[in-house]
Amino acid sequence: MHSKTYILISFHTAELGNPDIVFLISIVLAFTFIMFLTCEILLQGSLRDHSEPNDEYVIPHGDWFEIVSSPHYLAEIVIYAGLVVASGGTDLTIWLLFGFVVSNLVLAAAETHRWYLQKFESYPKKRLAIIPFAY
Q1: Burial level of 70, CB count in 10 A (0-12/13-18/19+)?
Q2: CA atoms 121, 118, 53, 36: torsion sign
Q3: What is the pTM of this model?
Q4: Rounded-to-integer distance, Cα 58 and Cα 52, Å
Q5: Which of 13, 46, 112, 134 is the most buried (most CB within 10 A)?
Q6: Rounded to whole angstroms, how far apart are CA atoms 88 and 95?
Q7: What does the pLDDT look like over 8-35, one tens digit per residue?
């Protein structure tokens, strides 16, 4: 099995031309996978923490929800950025997909953030919409 892995890595190295690029892509893909898991943990943890049933909407909290209103959207953008890097960054279709995803999720995060601020007087004013310390 070790030789098959080596052949796969050799194929990608020959295709991309530089073993450092293959290593970088591997790191980005690993980071992307970690972001995906973080996204799942965020959604499961902050929204399902409450032991008692509640009919009212609960403001998400904990982890990245303390910094931005839609960290799950940010994690998804990072996942798609990993797809761009994994493709080598030369495929126009992947770039167009990435552009659509980013614009769609940034717009959705902005609207979600605006709704939180209008609906809840106690909503933390320091939270931003999607990008930590920027937007």
Answers
A1: buried
A2: negative
A3: 0.65
A4: 12
A5: 46
A6: 11
A7: 444 444 455 567 777 777 787 787 777 7
